[in-house]
Design goal:
Layout: E1 2-10, E2 21-27, E3 30-35, E4 44-45, E5 50-54, E6 56-61, H1 74-84, E7 86-91, H2 102-112, E8 118-121, H3 137-143, H4 158-169, E9 174-177, H5 182-185, E10 190-191, H6 194-199, E11 203-204, H7 207-223, E12 226-229, H8 235-245, E13 251-256, H9 257-261, H10 283-295, E14 300-302, H11 310-313, H12 330-336, H13 342-357, E15 372-383, E16 400-411, E17 414-417
Parallel strand pairs: 1-4, 1-5, 6-7, 7-8, 9-12, 10-11, 12-13, 13-14
Antiparallel strand pairs: 1-2, 2-3, 5-15, 15-16, 16-17
Helix pairs in contact: 2-3, 4-7, 7-8
Amino acid sequence: MDIVIEQATLLYPDHKYHGQKVTIRVVDGKIVSIDQKKINTPDKITGKNLFVSPGWVDIGAQSGEPGYEHRETLNTLSKAAAFGGYTTLAIFPNTKPALHSKSEIEFIKQKSRPLQTEIIPIGAISKNCQGKELAEMIDMHQTGAIAYSDGKHPVYDPGVIMRAMIYAKHFEGLIINHPNDENISGPGLMHEGAVSQRLGLKGIPSMAETIMLQRDLRLAQYSDCRYLAHLLSADESVSLIKQAKKSNDKIFSSVSYLNLVHTDDVLEQFDSIYKQSPPLRTEKDRKELIKGIQDGVLDIICSNHTPLEVEKKDLEFAYADAGTLGLQICFAALNTKNIISPEAWAYKAAFKTRQILNLTVPNMVKGSNADLTIFDTEHEWVYDQKDILSPTINSPFMGSSFKGKVLATISKNKAWLATN
């Protein structure tokens, strides 16, 4: 490996070259030079508006392995991550079996070790992610679980999540919950509002999210536990997080990129590809979520990567499962819509996410191991089915034109380079 990144704007707060154009040379996985000199070589990564940052991190991507390998394997997940600019993934435990004991945690660590992407398991809060009996949290912590969550399944029982928070407090663990009171959301299919009424579809009120969020915030305050409210979608949720953060610096929050890009209006044609959890909501919600990201109330943007086979998506809207692919086009979709600046995106994806997970930010100096994402905000391209690296194709963006692309990722002495 001998890679030269020429004249890329470095995004690394506190680095002496932050915000300046640098040339970086990586040989055999190590940075051998980083300065402002050009290198006379034809083999280099260049771009119209090139940036380089520490490798990006995503929380909550869904692996199919073990148990659902027809949806996604760890290998294909790693490839999709590299294409999208991610060098580290903290993956959800909704596999079969669930990642609910040290043996499953060890399996993920061992199986993913040869891959370019660092894949770190999130251990289940409850056995089989059923929300009833606590899983082996301490054993999983000692084996390498990065956080605890039942992933796609909200923890409904307040006693279960409170005990999980108290356990996690002992080792500064992170509890992740997607707030959705299923007693309220019930069999809802999309956001409850004008569009659902017009289409005659059962709605999911924002209250299903905010009621559980209020509960979680109270319990996190009581237990003094680090807590991530995952994939918020309602404008009121932004206000609740903003208020909670005034008195608790252990509260974090995330939003799905798709909730920043689209609203429930795209469901007018009953296209099940846009059916997701949390549901797409109104333009008012979308604008408030974007403001929350810009103001720092919402900490990070997640891919909400959920691969599903065609038999689960190519159905009438009422019968289709919720979920879309996200890793490969999360950044491109946001950049195309000018939702976030490259500086803000890199900070959230490379720095803030690591802070939430208590991970060390990779060094970017001569002699350090390279963990880099290189991207061009002006690069125009079309996302086609041939680009999809997951076994499934449940993406809402096939055939879409984008502005902004990841040109390379380098990590673990391996490199992924874009071909167009």
